[in-house]
Write a structure and sequence with these properties.
single chain; about 800 residues; Rossmann fold; six-stranded parallel sheet; binds ligand GPK; pyridoxal phosphate; Alpha-1,4 glucan phosphorylase; Glyco_trans_35
Length: about 800
């Protein structure tokens, strides 16, 4: 007997069908005969929202009337992926939807595919935020996701005929978008510029120069089987002045709409940088825009209709999590609101503020911690700069009571000294909140020992770890229905979808050859599906009888796509030179997915190299189809959902000490891929849990990396020492992958040989050596799949439900609604 705990549908197929017809008629204005899949998609989405509406009201009411503190997750990015199927799953209506849509003469998949993916994030950080709000709702914890509804998401990636990345605007709102409800009646004014004046009573008044209207667009966030529906509130910027009439009357139409354009520019585009802050004024405007609107919104929600609310209770109503440094301007903003708008004294305001905020750091790259010139803040937010300076002064005074180490105090300044003072947002976040957390055990240790060392010396109790997680609803149940069915069969229950540690119950089944064969059959079927998908979407011809070896993530030097491509070239060179007999080569299909920041020169050149290696290797008859390289463009959540379940081997090969956590690594392990990886980020914890014998470890550790830097790293030495590495790099130089042109990749080669900041060359030999272990195991399918199954069985810890529970216990100190 299989126990089914999935939510029951609130609706029959007949009702669902009727509602779709109704929406088609009244919202879309088409008959079922005229309707396209896109019409049915919009109609179905509106139907789903209809059925979630009461739970949404109830959740808000219980939140406002009850005593359970809510969570406000402040994030510049929410990389949600498609909404319809996820909402259907969480609300228990998948079967009714499928049947209703089929009854109307449509294929459910076509309707699902008609949804345009909102790509309002760059990568891991944004996708984590999306997993977290899913888990908060599923655990029944009242929460808001607060962010920006960018008109243009992360750019759409294309490749030109030379294999170079081309960025195209991602105008995701070009089509009807049924999920977001624009609530013009709950807008907030956000001010910028101007000056601060001191009033007669000594208090300060900010006289801003211009302002924009922040209009919330509300998305329902239905919990899985919790009956709760939270809110993702994304702000969009509107102008108060449609146009300047005086200018308009002079027939200068373009200039007349300038104020409108400037205001609406604020939410126009997501900055496409990942782990590198761009010091742009517009970016700071975006950050202040959404954070200021969100703080005022929370006060409106929790103190409805009150002119003089008692905001000393604010930290009992909501806790704000700062997702990286992007929303940190919220700290001086809350201070300003409390002091200037509500008349609290400094100390009371500081007490409220520090009890309200907590900060998550997502990086170890020092260049990725945002630093703003004080001058820029002063121009845009003059009152905030005053407050930041005062926070800095008080903080330094407090430090002086805790240490006599003047140099240390100086290093900890929030505002630096000198001619062009800078504001360090990570330091402001650490000083102005209760807790600071890293995103994996190793990362949190390194944060304490290196990046924020001085802070952790003085405030050791502020620091904690919350290892990242991913939602099993989207990344197992939706992405991999076959594996989901097998897990449910193996465990005798579907309860694992809300208690992922239950996967442990699969462990004994790894000894059962029949079960392992079923598991292998699931993978094979997923590979065939992916091959069909890749053919349809990209025109690729993938052979599902080869090993599918995947590396998907942002293109960054520290992640070391170079290591993967150099190893592949070395293999190709072995075949070309006859050093290995091509008939002995294990057939492999290597699949890359990666976007590079538009201004990141070496990353873009790496993309070009990969595309050209693919062109050459895939078309070389000497290779006899043993090596295949594919680079589907525009990697996004949808592609991830198709590719991850079809992967045999996953690459997590960053330089040790550089990847804060990784979350792709978790998704792959949970979908039964084996990992080849370094001791970095959450790889460490994954390996601990799945067992060292079920993980392909290679490469230097953090300590070895540090030691090598200290000794003086010379990449050329490694090039000379390993003939296969030399052959690979020489092949890049000699024009093999650039139609004979020796200059194309010269800058990349020069970087490898003279700088190689992330020590790709030093780890090359170890990386190629582990390949023989990988291939030997892959030649024994039963043993490979046994180990892959053990990866699934032991990765339950990496559910975002567990991450959220850790945040609740260690940081937020709240829980589900009663
Ligand atoms: C970290 F600093 C940043 C950033 O700007 N963007 C981003 O996606 C990632 N991250 C880390 O690189 C990953 O290791 C981590 O898993 C992810 O954030 C979520 O914590």
């Amino acid at each position: 007997m299989t126990e089914i705990t999935a939510p029951k549908s609130p609706v029959t197929t007949e009702e669902f069908t009727d509602r779709i017809r109704e929406q088609l008629k009244y919202a879309q204005g088409v008959t079922p005969d005229q309707a396209t899949p896109a019409d049915v998609y919009v109609a179905s989405s509106l139907v789903v929202r209809h059925y979630l509406q009461d739970a949404w009201f109830q959740t808000q009411q219980d939140m406002i009337n009850g005593s359970t503190k809510a969570v406000g997750y402040l994030s510049a990015e929410f990389l949600m992926g498609k909404q319809l199927r996820n909402a259907l799953l969480n609300a228990g209506m998948i079967d009714q939807f499928d049947a209703a849509v089929e009854g109307l003469g449509f294929k459910p998949q076509d309707v699902i595919d008609a949804e345009y993916e909102p790509a309002l994030g760059n990568g891991g950080l944004g996708r984590l935020a999306a997993c977290f709000i899913d888990s908060l709702a599923s655990l029944g914890v009242p929460a808001f996701g607060y962010g920006i509804q960018y008109r243009y998401g992360i750019f759409k990636q294309e490749f030109d005929k030379d294999g170079k990345q081309v960025e195209k605007p991602e105008y995701w709102l070009a089509n009807e978008e049924p999920w977001g409800h624009t609530d013009y009646n709950r807008s907030q004014r956000v001010n910028f510029g101007g000056k601060v004046v001191t009033k007669a009573d000594g208090s300060k008044e900010w006289q801003p120069e211009w302002s924009v209207r922040a209009v919330p667009v509300d998305y329902m966030v239905p919990g899985y089987a919790s009956g709760r529906v939270n809110t993702l509130r994304l702000w969009t910027a509107k102008s108060y002045d449609e146009f300047d009439l005086a200018t308009f009357n002079k027939s200068d139409y373009l200039n007349a709409v300038k104020p409108k354009v400037k205001a609406e520019d604020i939410s126009k585009i997501l900055y496409p940088e990942d782990s590198t802050p761009q010091g742009k004024a517009l970016r700071l405007e975006q950050q202040y825009f959404f954070v200021s609107a969100s703080i005022h919104d929370a006060i409106r929600v929790f103190y409805p209709g009150q002119d003089k609310p008692d905001l000393t209770t604010f930290p009992d109503k909501i806790t704000f999590q700062l997702n990286d440094t992007h929303p940190v301007i919220g700290i001086p903003e809350l201070m300003r609101v409390l002091i200037d708008e509500y008349g609290y004294d400094w100390n009371t305001a500081w007490d409220i503020t520090t009890r309200t905020f907590n900060y998550t750091c997502h990086t170890l790259l020092p260049e990725a911690l945002e630093v703003w010139p004080a001058k820029l803040i002063g121009e845009l937010l003059p009152r905030h700069l005053e407050i930041i300076k005062a926070i800095n002064t008080n903080f330094l005074a407090e430090l002086a009571t805790k240490t006599r180490d003047k140099a240390k105090i100086d290093r900890m300044r929030i505002v630096t000294e000198g001619e062009n003072p800078q504001v360090r947002m990570a330091y402001l976040a650490t000083a102005g909140g209760s807790h600071v957390n890293g995103v994996a055990a190793l990362h949190s240790e390194l944060l304490k020992d290196v990046t924020l060392r001085d802070f952790s010396d003085i405030y050791p109790n502020k620091f904690t770890n919350v290892t990242n997680g991913v939602t099993p609803r989207r990344f197992i149940r939706l992405a991999n229905p076959r594996l989901s069915a097998l897990i449910t069969e193996g465990l005798g229950t579907d309860r694992w979808l809300s208690d992922l540690e239950l996967l442990k119950g699969l462990e004994p089944l790894a000894k059962d050859d029949e079960f392992v064969k079923k598991f292998a059959a699931v993978k094979q079927a997923n590979k065939e599906d992916f091959a069909a998908y890749a053919k349809r979407e990209y025109g690729f011809e993938l052979d599902p009888n080869t090993m599918f070896n995947t590396m998907v993530k942002r293109l960054h030097e520290y992640k070391r796509q170079s290591l993967k491509i150099l190893a592949l070239i070395a293999k190709y060179a072995d075949i070309k030179s006859g050093k290995v007999n091509v008939d002995d080569v294990l057939p492999r299909t290597v699949i890359f997915g990666a976007k590079a920041a538009p201004g990141y020169y070496l990353a873009k050149m790496t993309i070009q190299l990969i595309n050209n290696v693919a062109r050459v290797v895939n078309n070389d008859p000497d290779v006899k189809g043993k090596l295949n390289v594919y680079f589907p463009w525009n990697y996004n959540v949808r592609l991830a959902q198709h590719l991850i379940p079809a992967t045999d081997l996953d690459e997590q090969i960053s330089q040790a000490g550089k990847e804060a956590s990784g979350t792709g690594n978790m998704k792959f392990a949970l979908n039964g891929a084996m990992t080849v990886g370094t001791l970095d980020g959450a790889n460490v914890e994954i390996r601990e849990r799945v067992g060292a014998e079920n993980f392909f470890l290679f490469g230097m550790t953090v300590d070895e990396v540090d030691k090598l830097y200290e000794e003086g790293y010379s990449p050329a030495k490694y090039y000379e020492a390993d003939p296969r590495l030399k052959a690979a790099i020489d092949m890049v130089s000699d024009g093999t992958f650039s139609n004979g042109d020796r200059n194309t990749y010269a800058p990349l080669v020069a970087d490898w040989l003279t700088k190689d900041w992330f020590m790709t060359l030093a780890d090359f030999t170890a990386y190629t050596e582990i390949q023989s272990d990988i291939e030997a195991l892959y030649r024994q399918p039963l043993e490979w799949n046994r180990k892959a199954l053990l990866n699934v069985a032991n990765s339950g810890y990496f559910s975002s439900d567990r991450s959220i529970q850790d945040y609740l216990d260690r940081i937020w100190h709240t829980g589900p609604l009663a």
